[in-house]
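Input record (one chain):
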Amino acid sequence: MFCLRQVMARGAARQPQPRALVPAARCFRMNHASQFEDVNQSYLRKEKAKAEEERERTKGYEVPKWKSFYDDEHTQEHQSRPYHLRKPLRVKAEGKNILLNPLFNKGTAFSVGERDRLGLRGLLPSKTVTFQDQIDRVMDQINREDTDVRKYQVLRDLHDRNETLYHRVILDNVEQLAPIIYTPTVGEACLEFGHDYRRARGMYFSSEDHGHMAAMCYNWPGGDIHVIVVTDGSRILGLGDLGANGMAIPVGKLALYCAAGGLAPHRVLPVMFDMGTDNESLWKDRHYLGMHHRRMRGRSYFEFLDEFMYAARSRWPNVMIQFEDFSSDKAMTILNRYRKNHLCFNDDIQGTGAVAVAGIYSAIRQKGVEPKQIVNERIVIAGAGSAGLGVANALAEAMVHEGVSPEEARSKFWVVDMDGVLAVGGKKNPTEHQIRFSRDDNTGGMSLSEVIQAVKPTILLGLTGCGGLFTENIVREMAVNNDRPIIFPLSNPTRNAECTAEEVYNLTEGRGIFASGSPFDPFEFNGSMTFPSQCNNMFIFPGIGLGATVANCKVISDLMIHAASIALANSLTDDEVAEGRVFPDVKRIRDISHSVAIAVIMQAHNEGLIQNERISSIIANRTRADLEQYIARKMYDPIYVPLVDQIYNRDMT
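The corresponding structure, as predicted from the sequence alone:
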């Protein structure tokens, strides 16, 4: 039996310990929150059960998951509208023939639907890749190559497989790849053209085709050619007579027309006008693919050229023909023979002249004076060939445009060849333009260094193809006579440049204003990076071609060329001017070509040379912004579009 004391002790032990007092308001909140959480959990459990029941009921009828291979974040930067909203293109080819046609081939980017409807299923690897994946893979291939020639070959092979991808790769990487597909690397490609020939591209007209050229033009499948670039291979860059091996020049030029100028690749045509070669080493080369005889000259040559011009215009009435790399003894004659009756253009003469004028305007602005002060400049030009005289003509016309007489303008020039400054009566058979710039004073016959000492020029231009011609003494003399000497070595390729960018900056203590025909890499000068400007014709000719063909101009006038120069000179941004650039960043080449095209069209309208009534109406009745928008829509953008076999267009009724 327990005693009373033990029972009371046990009862006290079982009693709860006292708790701290909790305010009444807090107790209410705690109880309310707990109740709300219970209700919320109950509601979520019921909704989850309903969702499970709905999924079970609709199992097998779910909205399919999908992803467009073309609308990802990477490819959006390439396109004005998503892939699935682009207008399909009907094509005649199907199956393997699609893959063999570089205009239509997309390679591994063909979608599953396209593979089915075009008969491609099983002909390609199973994985469908994005456009950006293809671009990245091509750039990886290019960057793995050690030499520029090998990079050129990678791009050439891509051009033969997939033109859309080729032009997109160039456009997205134009600063890196323009020197590969054109100057200076294309010169090396020309030297190996016959030995490295892979695939037919363009057309060849030879001395065996007399009387057949008009019919031959119908062998080309495209009926809507806008631009032809033709060469006879007689003066390829600074390499001389390469004959039919010069075909790589029109091909490279037209690649820039498409990528930089926005012309569609099916509307351009490279042409080799093969009238023989005087390069005896090519006669002995069993891999040379051109005519093995001396060059045709004189009357017979022009009879063949007349036939070609007539044949091309008969087949493609609105085509613009660009003459490229014709030798100096006939380049100007050819241009003058056709320019008044044909839509034609010589890039070596007019293009080089136009880009040089733009560069000089920009350089004068760098000196802190207005471009119209070009009339006060004294200009020495080394090189009396077609390029040198073309630049002299363009600069003289720019001076005339600013208000001086032609005679006064020509008095500002000293043109030098291997015999010295051009002088009246100094050459046995001078050309018309050499006579025009011949001096009748005591400077006639002076050497380059002598004339620089005598006349103290403000501008020195090189178009000789003689690498290193501008010696240390010559550059220093220019620096002594000018606070800001303008020195442009414009010869191609790079090894033929008359001097380098670093030489000009070092010998002039950074005061020289420099631009070159071939690219020079950036370098450090006085603790900061210097970006040498390239006086590259690609700033001019794509825009001229775009404007002249879209507007269907009758001819290309000198004032249209001058308008292109002004547009290029005005295209530099404030940041580019602050960096000391003479030409804009090549990465903006599409915008520059668009601006040049607008300027060309406006000038053509002022001269009554436009035959496109739609453009004439826009200029007359609407704003400049409307014209700019219209031209922008006409520019080819290298992106993929849906393809469908033409059989899907048949009438099923």
